[in-house]
């Protein structure tokens, strides 16, 4: 992995993690295109360094979420323990903590069940492009079929946890699915995005820590290009922080339908590109 490649992929992760356009799809596309242009590897080969790098850039965007929502996180944690102590469960932040705690196991169960069937998909950018198109349809119809205005409740939280678990399919946007589902149930877009980002914290943190411990071949780690990985990490963090900051403002002005068009166009173009490249 070269430094410029790491910076480029880190920037892609930083942008696409928070926009409902699937960061996993964009990383697969960017790495596959890089391989085509440089002829450095077989198109459908994904090395352990790439997987490790993917984990690191996800941790970078997670750090951006932690810093951006630091006040919300502190308030939610405080409200949870104060609520338990005083047996007062009406506080909004207390309820948010409960909803996140309820949704997280659902996400983990679904992700674990689908882990093996979806593992090989990251090696097939054509399939990933089809899932990105599916994300586009979900975004397009979520507001079109929107129910009457509602606030977050346990039912919506559990469904959102399920949607987050389904995002283990590369190309199905985690933020796209979770925000779209909440919007479908009648929630405000900005509030939906806030809950989506907050509920991603325990899942991304857990997955990023568990994968290296359980599956990484530690004999290969010493050979990784850590200068490139650090450059990618920093790029992903800086771009990610700026992106989440302005995406929260943008959601108050534009509908999810705008992002659905992007998913349609990129999904179709990438499917055609990799269909052509497959024949050469």
How would you summarize what this structure contains?
With about 280 residues, the chain is an all-alpha fold. It is built from twelve helices and no strands.
Give the helix/strand layout.
Elements: H1 3-16, H2 23-38, H3 48-68, H4 70-86, H5 92-119, H6 125-144, H7 154-166, H8 174-184, H9 189-215, H10 218-221, H11 226-250, H12 256-278
Helix pairs in contact: 1-2, 1-3, 1-11, 2-6, 3-9, 3-11, 4-5, 5-7, 5-9, 6-8, 6-12, 7-8, 8-9
Describe the structure.
With 280 residues, this protein is mostly helical. It has one domain (3-278). The chain is 78% helix and 0% strand. The chain has helices spanning 3-16, 23-38, 48-68, 70-86, 92-119, 125-144, 154-166, 174-184, 189-215, 218-221, 226-250, 256-278. The protein is globular, with a radius of gyration of 19 Å.
Which characteristics define this entry?
single chain; 280 residues; mainly alpha; 12 helices; globular
Quick one: overall form? globular
Judged by helices, strands and strand pairing, the structural class is mainly alpha
Question: What does the main sheet amount to?
Answer: none
Q: Distance between termini?
A: 24 Å
Task: Tell how many strands the DSSP assignment holds.
Answer: 0
Which band does the percent of strand residues land in? under 5%
Output mean pLDDT: 89
Number of helical stretches of at least 4 residues: 12
Total domain modules? 1
């Amino acid at each position: 992995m070269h430094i410029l490649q790491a910076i480029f992929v880190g920037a892609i992760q930083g942008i696409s993690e928070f926009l409902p356009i699937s960061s996993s799809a964009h990383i697969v596309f960017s790495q596959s295109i890089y391989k085509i242009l440089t002829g450095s590897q077989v198109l459908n080969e994904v090395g352990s360094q790439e997987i490790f790098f993917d984990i690191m850039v996800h941790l970078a965007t997670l750090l951006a979420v932690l810093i951006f929502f630091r006040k919300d996180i502190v308030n939610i944690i405080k409200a949870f323990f104060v609520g338990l102590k005083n047996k007062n469960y009406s506080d909004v932040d207390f309820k948010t903590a409960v909803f996140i705690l309820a949704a997280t196991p659902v996400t983990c169960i679904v992700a674990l069940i689908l882990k093996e069937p979806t593992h090989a998909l990251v090696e097939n950018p054509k399939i990933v492009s089809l899932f990105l198109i599916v994300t586009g349809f979900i975004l397009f119809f979520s507001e079109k079929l929107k129910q009457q205005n509602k606030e977050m409740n346990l039912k919506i939280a559990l469904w959102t946890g399920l949607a987050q678990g389904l995002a283990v399919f590369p190309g199905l946007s985690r933020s796209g699915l979770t925000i779209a589902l909440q919007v479908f149930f009648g929630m405000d877009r900005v509030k939906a995005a806030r809950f989506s980002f907050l509920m991603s914290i325990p899942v991304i943190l857990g997955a990023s820590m568990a994968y290296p411990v359980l599956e990484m071949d530690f004999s290969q780690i010493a050979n990784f290009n850590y200068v490139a990985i650090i450059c990618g990490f920093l790029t992903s963090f800086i771009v990610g922080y700026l992106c989440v900051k302005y995406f929260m403002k943008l959601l108050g002005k534009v509908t999810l339908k705008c992002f659905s068009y992007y998913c349609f166009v990129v999904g179709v173009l990438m499917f055609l590109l990799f269909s052509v490249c497959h024949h050469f």
